[in-house]
């Protein structure tokens, strides 16, 4: 398995003289695309639609739980990043922590799967799945992850997002009520002036 991982990495990793256009695209996807996740959650929350608010909360909870699973995996099995074992070419600074599974890929794919499991947000889920593929490529291309780090992240995302979706009816109404109360408490003056929805 590790031999396949290294072979795929060699195929996807940027060459020594990587084209500037490809590097710019990879940087954009690897660094900035992840900010679409909090943006989506904030917009979903502020739309005043309880269904969208609950979906935003569901995605947030799934992401937190999935990242928790990643932490446990990293504690049990430390997998070095490519630059730590002097493999390939690295174009992005990163801490030399465990590479498996990728947190970036876990977050974006957890949101994508949450949206795909929702009846009325599947198109948005497809869009986020496409962004997830771009992030996966970019972080391998820039030399901070192996391909199996991405597959591991998708595996964690599928399990956690599906579990959260299947059990949502049990906790989501209470969580939604609590989140709305906190929202009103924190942003009461802005809500009173009409700057934020209630």
Automatic annotation (TrEMBL):
Domain of life, source organism: Bacteria
SUPFAM superfamilies (alphabetical): Acid phosphatase/Vanadium-dependent haloperoxidase
One Pfam family named in its UniProt record: PAP2
Domain Phosphatidic acid phosphatase type 2/haloperoxidase span(s) in chain numbering: 55-165
Keyword terms, alphabetized: Membrane, Transmembrane, Transmembrane helix
Catalytically driven reaction(s): di-trans,octa-cis-undecaprenyl diphosphate + H2O = di-trans,octa-cis-undecaprenyl phosphate + phosphate + H(+)
Transmembrane regions: 25-46, 55-78, 98-117, 124-144, 150-168
EC number(s) recorded for this UniProt protein: 3.6.1.27
Name of this protein: undecaprenyl-diphosphate phosphatase
Organism expressing this protein natively: Salinicola rhizosphaerae
Organismal lineage: Bacteria, Pseudomonadati, Pseudomonadota, Gammaproteobacteria, Oceanospirillales
């Amino acid at each position: 398995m590790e031999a396949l991982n290294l072979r795929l990495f060699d195929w996807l990793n940027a060459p020594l003289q990587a084209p500037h256009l490809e590097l710019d695209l990879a940087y954009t996807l690897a660094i900035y695309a992840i900010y679409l996740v909090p943006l989506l959650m904030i917009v979903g929350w502020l739309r005043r639609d309880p269904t969208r608010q609950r979906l935003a909360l569901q995605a947030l909870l799934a992401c937190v739980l999935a990242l928790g699973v990643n932490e446990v995996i990293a504690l049990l099995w430390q997998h070095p990043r490519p630059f730590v074992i002097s493999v390939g070419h690295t174009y992005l600074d990163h801490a030399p922590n465990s590479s498996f599974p990728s947190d970036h890929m876990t977050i974006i794919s957890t949101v994508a799967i949450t949206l795909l499991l929702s009846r009325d947000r599947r198109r948005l889920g497809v869009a986020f799945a496409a962004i997830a593929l771009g992030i996966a490529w970019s972080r391998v291309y820039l030399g901070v992850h192996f391909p199996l780090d991405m597959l591991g992240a998708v595996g964690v995302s599928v399990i956690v997002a599906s579990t959260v979706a299947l059990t949502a009816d049990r906790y989501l109404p209470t969580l939604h009520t609590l989140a709305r109360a906190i929202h009103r408490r924190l942003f009461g003056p802005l809500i009173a002036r009409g700057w934020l929805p209630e």
